Amino acid sequence: MTDNYWKFILGLQHNAQQFFKDLTSHHTVRHHWSIRNHDIFMVRNLEDSSLVYDSIDALIFDLFHQGAYDCSLYPFDLLFPKFEKIQSNFLLEINNYPVLIFKLRHTNIALIKIEREVVKEIQPIGDPREFWGTLSTQDVSNYMLFTLIPLNLEQNKKIRIFDSCLNWENFYKQTQEIIRSTPYQFYGTYDISFINNLHLYPHEEEGCTFPLLENPSSQNNLAFTLFQQFETLQINLRGFKHPRNEMAEYQNFDLEEINKLNLYEESINQQFVQLICHTANSYQTSYISVKTQNELEKEIILCKKQSGLQDSSVIENTTSPEPETISGWRALTTLFIVLAILLIILYGLFLLVQKYEFAQFLLLITTILSVLIVIGRK
After folding, report:
1. Which residues contact 216 (CB under 8 A, 6 or more apart)?
2. Residue 216 and residue 196: Cα distance in Å, rounded?
3. Distances (CA, A) of 16 to 31, 150, 214, 219, 228
4. Closest C-alpha among 218, 225, 237, 219 to residue 191
5. What is the per-residue pLDDT for 312?
């Protein structure tokens, strides 16, 4: 699952839900997160490959006319555990990812991601050993191609169970256990910043960040906080494995160690998909009080200490010893001694200049050189 896909689908779900609930107009049905994370959007018929929709608003408006009243996200593995990759003329995405489910009066419909359409095989040009194939516009990450598949009774039961078993504090604890089960130490494992909104470009200047919520609550949100933690961890994992990071332990891993890290990454990715789905469906219930936040922050500090990491807030709050104060009498005595030594040196220099012409010449040259050095530095 690519970064742009989950941002695209989260924005699409959020504004579609707002439209179905009559909380936004048809003029603003396309969310910034969706607009900025796709170039091409198409929904094709699974049976005959015909084009059904070619824009987000066309999909939402037509399903609304058909009776759609709600939409939510659910893990692909939950609904389609034994799905065939090849369907008709399509290669479907079968790795776990958030699937958008539109809920209509008499049925629920899944928006399934198509990895690519099957195209005609091109014969090699010249020596087949040197022919690398042809480029495809379907390879770009902003190519969003989907199909619609109705859910059966068993799948509808699964989505009801998925929605009913959520407790945000338990989910938070479960997530921390998974993140901290890392076989190796990474930066960001324990770093959590409590926030009340998500931003598409969080590091841009104000007005260009494109928040998920237009009018967020002043309370911090546990779901959004976990999003930030996951993104930080995934960035650090990519840096840890990057081939140019020669100082990373990963460059010296054997096969067993690589497999351990891959299993850890898989568990992280699976939990991240769960987080995306729960956030889309129930972020409104994940706001926390100041008291709860303080308790969680204390727990983070405790876990850092137990893991052998020094907490940054503890370092910041550590007071340094006050500098030693000097009494007025002591300062005055020191000043007199310094002045006396300075006068003795000047008097000795005066006597030396008066008696020896060479000393006068040396003093003159030294003075000129000092002036030139000062002017040169300016």
Report:
1. 196, 197
2. 7
3. 9, 18, 15, 24, 24
4. 225
5. 39
Cβ neighbours around 311 below 10 Å, total? 16
Token pair of 239, please?
């840096």
What are 195's strand-pairing partners? 221
* Residue 37: burial class (beta carbons within 10 Å; 0-12, 13-18, 19+): buried
Residue found under tokens 């009498």:
329
Tokens of 288: 């926390």
Would you state the structure tokens that stand for residue 155, as one six-digit string?
Answer: 């799948």
Q: What is the pLDDT of residues 16-39, one digit of tens each?
A: 999 999 988 888 888 888 998 888
pLDDT digits (tens, 9 = 90+) for 188-237: 566 788 999 999 988 777 778 899 998 899 999 999 999 999 988 888 88
Q: Over 60: is that where the pLDDT of 324 sits?
A: no
Encode burial over 205-241: b for 16+ CB neighbours within 10 A, e otherwise: eeeeebbbeeebeeebbbbbbbbbbbebbbeebeebb
